[in-house]
Design brief:
This protein has 377 residues and is an alpha/beta fold. Helices cover 44% and strands 19% of the residues. It has 2 domains: 3-269, Queuine tRNA-ribosyltransferase-like (TIM Barrel, Alpha-Beta Barrel), CATH 3.20.20.105; 276-376, no CATH class. An 8-stranded parallel β-sheet has the order 4-14-13-12-11-10-6-5. Strands 1-2-3 form a 3-stranded antiparallel β-sheet. The protein is globular and about 60 Å long.
Amino acid sequence: MFSFDVVAKSTESRARAGMIETSRGVVETPIFMPVGTLGSVKSISPEELVEAGAQIILGNTYHLYLRPGCDIISRFAGLHRFMNWSKPILTDSGGFQVFSLAKLAKISDEGVTFQSHIDGSKHLLSPEKVMDIQTCLATDIMMCLDQCIQYPATREQCRAALKITTQWAQRCKNAWQNSQNGHNALFGIVQGGMFTDLRRQSAEELMDIDFSGYAIGGLSVGEPIDIMIEMAALTLPLLPQIRPRYIMGVGTPENLIELVALGADMFDCVLPTRNARNGQLFTQRGTINISNSRYKDETDPLESECRCYTCRNYSRAYLRHLYLARELLAYRLNTIHNIHYYLNFIKHMRAAIMADEFESFRQDFYRKRRKYHESKS
């Protein structure tokens, strides 16, 4: 029930448009996946996500395993019914959260032993356990357990993480084959730090195992943007053309357009929701801080060209008032706009690829930003 087809390619870059088919619907790529870590995209409802144009969202194995737990979610036959979301869901394996949140995490061949960041209880996430949890969640795309490491890291640290990531990937594949019911897909995750030969080795080892799709992990972990782009530019062409390619945890609109130009298909990032709660709103001309005093008496919408619920109904002055007053409505309205911006941005990016006008779209994107910054200076 899972397939991927490339339907158009840019003649001026590696950008491509595709179609992922799942048992719960079709996802048009390139695609941005709003992050619903705990079974919700913070501050907005599934219905508002659909209105914004979301085709697929992301959930997280680590968080949902700890709370509410598989015993609760299994009563609803999976995460979709539990959270009232009928479209596809991708679940991360939890490897990054163990790296970033868990206390006293210890990695061995068996898996990751850690203490919960919630109550300090001790747990083991093995490749097999991660597959069991994601099977309980009944998600459409499952991710292998991998070892994510910090930046900077030594070559030996990256080599060791690569080795264990490959071993875990094979065990995840075996467990998935033994238990999956034909309604989901499994993606492997390329690691290797910022070393080009290790990235190549990781990609080759994962392709030998053979997955439904491939993700590039270990980016956007503190490295400079030029190094992140360099690693993506090296790794993306190594991965099979006939499989979706997913850059994990990235990024800004600028990141997205450059990575699409390099051939990436799927993205997730907390920026649109996190920045919304911090009063930072994305527009075609750049990011604005709604708390700025210049907006205190502006009667215009945040962005006149935007057709999101927020821009159709509310002024900049009102959004500023809500945010400064710390009214809960501020977070909802800001998030609706930012999610709509990201999804609309990538929708237009796809349309440009389909029309073979991606490079002119890319140049226009930067031209609008330059013009906006020049007007402010």
